Amino acid sequence: MVDHRREDGFTVVETIVALVLMSVFLTLLFQLFFSTQYQQAVVVRRAAAQEIARSNLGKITASTTIPLPACIATAGSANNTLVNQSAAGSIIATNAPDGTPTWETATLQAEPVTDTPMPKNTIQELRVFYPFGCGVNKPIQIVSNVKYGTEVITNASYIK
Protein backbone atom coordinates (compact mmCIF):
# COMPACT_ATOMS: atom_id res chain seq x y z
CA MET A 1 0.00 0.00 0.00
CA VAL A 2 1.22 3.43 -0.91
CA ASP A 3 0.98 6.33 1.56
CA HIS A 4 -0.40 9.39 -0.23
CA ARG A 5 0.05 11.96 2.59
CA ARG A 6 1.58 15.19 1.49
CA GLU A 7 4.80 16.33 3.21
CA ASP A 8 4.43 20.02 2.31
CA GLY A 9 4.96 22.74 4.98
CA PHE A 10 6.87 22.95 8.24
CA THR A 11 6.60 20.85 11.32
CA VAL A 12 5.67 22.38 14.68
CA VAL A 13 9.26 22.04 15.91
CA GLU A 14 10.65 23.84 12.85
CA THR A 15 8.12 26.64 13.29
CA ILE A 16 8.99 27.08 17.00
CA VAL A 17 12.74 27.15 16.25
CA ALA A 18 12.20 29.76 13.53
CA LEU A 19 10.10 31.93 15.88
CA VAL A 20 12.71 31.71 18.66
CA LEU A 21 15.52 32.67 16.28
CA MET A 22 13.47 35.53 14.88
CA SER A 23 12.63 36.86 18.39
CA VAL A 24 16.31 36.71 19.43
CA PHE A 25 17.31 38.59 16.28
CA LEU A 26 14.62 41.25 16.78
CA THR A 27 15.57 41.68 20.45
CA LEU A 28 19.21 42.26 19.50
CA LEU A 29 18.18 44.64 16.75
CA PHE A 30 16.03 46.75 19.14
CA GLN A 31 18.80 46.82 21.75
CA LEU A 32 21.26 48.01 19.13
CA PHE A 33 18.83 50.70 17.98
CA PHE A 34 18.15 52.05 21.48
CA SER A 35 21.83 51.90 22.43
CA THR A 36 22.70 53.89 19.32
CA GLN A 37 20.00 56.46 20.11
CA TYR A 38 21.35 56.86 23.67
CA GLN A 39 24.93 57.27 22.47
CA GLN A 40 23.82 59.85 19.93
CA ALA A 41 22.07 61.85 22.67
CA VAL A 42 25.25 61.71 24.81
CA VAL A 43 27.39 62.98 21.92
CA VAL A 44 24.94 65.79 21.12
CA ARG A 45 24.85 66.92 24.79
CA ARG A 46 28.66 66.86 25.03
CA ALA A 47 28.99 68.90 21.85
CA ALA A 48 26.47 71.45 23.14
CA ALA A 49 28.29 71.66 26.50
CA GLN A 50 31.61 72.09 24.70
CA GLU A 51 30.17 74.93 22.65
CA ILE A 52 28.74 76.64 25.76
CA ALA A 53 32.09 76.34 27.57
CA ARG A 54 33.93 77.71 24.53
CA SER A 55 31.49 80.60 24.19
CA ASN A 56 31.76 81.56 27.88
CA LEU A 57 35.54 81.39 27.67
CA GLY A 58 35.52 83.59 24.58
CA LYS A 59 33.40 86.18 26.38
CA ILE A 60 35.83 86.52 29.28
CA THR A 61 39.00 86.53 27.18
CA ALA A 62 37.56 89.13 24.80
CA SER A 63 36.34 91.42 27.59
CA THR A 64 38.56 94.05 29.14
CA THR A 65 36.04 95.16 31.75
CA ILE A 66 35.78 91.99 33.85
CA PRO A 67 37.32 92.53 37.30
CA LEU A 68 39.53 89.57 38.21
CA PRO A 69 40.31 88.63 41.82
CA ALA A 70 43.75 89.59 43.02
CA CYS A 71 46.43 86.94 43.25
CA ILE A 72 47.43 86.11 46.82
CA ALA A 73 51.02 84.94 47.23
CA THR A 74 50.41 82.65 50.21
CA ALA A 75 50.31 78.86 50.31
CA GLY A 76 46.61 78.93 51.15
CA SER A 77 45.70 80.91 48.05
CA ALA A 78 42.53 79.73 46.36
CA ASN A 79 43.84 80.55 42.91
CA ASN A 80 47.68 80.58 42.98
CA THR A 81 48.59 77.14 41.61
CA LEU A 82 52.31 77.89 41.81
CA VAL A 83 52.23 77.64 45.62
CA ASN A 84 49.10 75.51 46.01
CA GLN A 85 48.83 72.69 43.42
CA SER A 86 45.29 71.79 44.50
CA ALA A 87 44.01 75.38 44.31
CA ALA A 88 40.33 75.47 43.48
CA GLY A 89 40.52 78.83 41.78
CA SER A 90 38.26 81.79 42.33
CA ILE A 91 34.83 81.73 40.74
CA ILE A 92 34.33 84.90 38.74
CA ALA A 93 31.00 83.92 37.18
CA THR A 94 28.48 81.12 37.69
CA ASN A 95 24.79 80.38 37.52
CA ALA A 96 22.89 78.81 40.38
CA PRO A 97 21.71 75.17 40.08
CA ASP A 98 18.14 76.40 39.68
CA GLY A 99 19.21 78.35 36.58
CA THR A 100 19.29 81.79 38.22
CA PRO A 101 22.22 83.71 36.74
CA THR A 102 24.70 85.13 39.24
CA TRP A 103 27.25 86.46 36.78
CA GLU A 104 29.36 89.35 38.04
CA THR A 105 28.64 91.95 35.39
CA ALA A 106 25.90 92.73 32.92
CA THR A 107 28.40 92.51 30.05
CA LEU A 108 29.04 88.83 30.79
CA GLN A 109 25.96 86.63 30.61
CA ALA A 110 25.64 82.86 30.93
CA GLU A 111 24.74 81.07 27.73
CA PRO A 112 21.05 80.15 27.57
CA VAL A 113 20.37 76.42 27.59
CA THR A 114 16.68 76.60 26.67
CA ASP A 115 17.23 75.97 22.94
CA THR A 116 19.89 73.28 23.43
CA PRO A 117 19.78 69.59 24.35
CA MET A 118 21.23 70.50 27.76
CA PRO A 119 19.18 69.91 30.94
CA LYS A 120 17.72 73.01 32.61
CA ASN A 121 19.88 72.50 35.72
CA THR A 122 23.13 72.86 33.75
CA ILE A 123 25.70 74.80 35.78
CA GLN A 124 28.10 77.15 34.01
CA GLU A 125 31.06 78.68 35.78
CA LEU A 126 34.22 80.60 35.07
CA ARG A 127 37.21 80.27 37.40
CA VAL A 128 40.49 82.17 37.49
CA PHE A 129 43.89 80.68 38.35
CA TYR A 130 47.38 82.14 38.58
CA PRO A 131 49.46 79.11 37.49
CA PHE A 132 52.77 81.00 37.30
CA GLY A 133 52.34 82.88 40.55
CA CYS A 134 51.57 86.49 41.30
CA GLY A 135 53.19 89.35 39.50
CA VAL A 136 52.97 91.83 36.70
CA ASN A 137 52.82 90.32 33.19
CA LYS A 138 52.28 86.79 34.52
CA PRO A 139 49.59 84.93 32.57
CA ILE A 140 46.21 84.27 34.14
CA GLN A 141 44.39 81.03 33.40
CA ILE A 142 40.64 81.23 32.87
CA VAL A 143 38.76 77.92 33.08
CA SER A 144 35.21 77.52 31.79
CA ASN A 145 33.25 74.55 33.20
CA VAL A 146 29.85 73.28 32.13
CA LYS A 147 28.35 70.72 34.55
CA TYR A 148 25.31 68.57 33.83
CA GLY A 149 24.47 65.33 35.58
CA THR A 150 27.80 63.63 36.29
CA GLU A 151 29.55 65.18 33.29
CA VAL A 152 31.88 68.19 33.44
CA ILE A 153 33.14 69.78 30.22
CA THR A 154 36.13 72.12 30.64
CA ASN A 155 37.83 74.65 28.39
CA ALA A 156 40.76 76.82 29.46
CA SER A 157 42.71 79.75 28.11
CA TYR A 158 45.47 82.11 29.24
CA ILE A 159 45.24 85.89 29.27
CA LYS A 160 47.61 88.61 30.42
List keywords for this structure.
160 residues, alpha+beta, four-stranded antiparallel sheet, 4 strands, rod-shaped
Account of the protein in words:
- By secondary structure, the chain is α+β, with helices and mostly antiparallel strands.
- It has one helix at about 10-60, and strands at about 90-95, 125-130, 140-150, 150-160.
- It has one domain (about 40-160).
- Strands 1-2-3-4 form a four-stranded antiparallel β-sheet.
- The longest helix has about 50 residues, at about 10-60.
- The relative contact order is 0.16.
Q: How many structural domains can be distinguished in the coordinates?
A: 1
Number of strands: 4
**What fraction of residues sit in β-strands?**
15-25%
Spatial strand sequence of the major β-sheet: 1-2-3-4
Sum up the overall morphology in one term. Answer: rod-shaped
Radius of gyration: 29 Å
Uncertain runs are none
Tell me the number of helical segments per DSSP (H or I, 4 or more residues long). 1
Taken in chain order, the helices and strands follow as: HEEEE
First CA to last CA: what distance? 105 Å
**Helix coverage percent of residues?**
25-40%
| Main sheet properties | 4 strands, antiparallel
Structural class: alpha+beta
